[in-house]
Specification:
mainly alpha, globular
Length: 238
Amino acid sequence: MQQDDNYKRVYLWLMIPLVITLCGFSLSYFLRFAQMSWEQHAHGLSAMLWMLLLIVQPYIAVNKNNRSLHRNLGKLGILLAGIVAGTAISAIDNNIAFALKDGTPEPFKVFMYGVSIVDLFLVSGFIYLVAKAILNTKDTREHSTYMIATALLLLSPGLTRLLVYIGALGFDLKIIPLHTLPIATATVLLASSWFMYRYNRLNHPAYYVILLVSVSAFAVPIMGESESVRELMDRVFA
């Protein structure tokens, strides 16, 4: 029971990634909702529902001790995770299409190509974390660590966009995602390190996944400027 008690407030902390994601995608998605394609809706809504599920699940299991409902929602979560991963891969097509569009400024091309590589790492990491969570459903600590790590892994895209809005609206700065991604990545790393330290999980594979994706995110300018990367992404996704 003491182990479960350690997770009684986790659902409150998991509200933070959801709020950041909602705010980060407010202008680019929610305010343009009617203009979005069905693929973009599938990706956006499934990701939001996943983060909402991460809030509800620990509350149901730990605070309400309703393991039956927790298991049933978990089965739906497997389907939802598949949609999140599948639509994330398809979203890379949009990144490359934008990069190839006439008139796209070079800094945006660099970002789109580079971040598409990061997305491949992110989706692979997400699939791994979900799979490990499923395989460890009988171990509360392991299962929770892998599931919470998915929220931390998905935090960067929304935070990157939110920082752009804050810079533009609050400080009248002409910044782009290429500028804010390192800040968002560093924030995710700090939040992940704090969580893993608090729960004595710094040696955990879930933390290594977050570290790997973060390292790739810091390398976005290098990857985005690489002609070899651009040629490869054009062949696969264009």
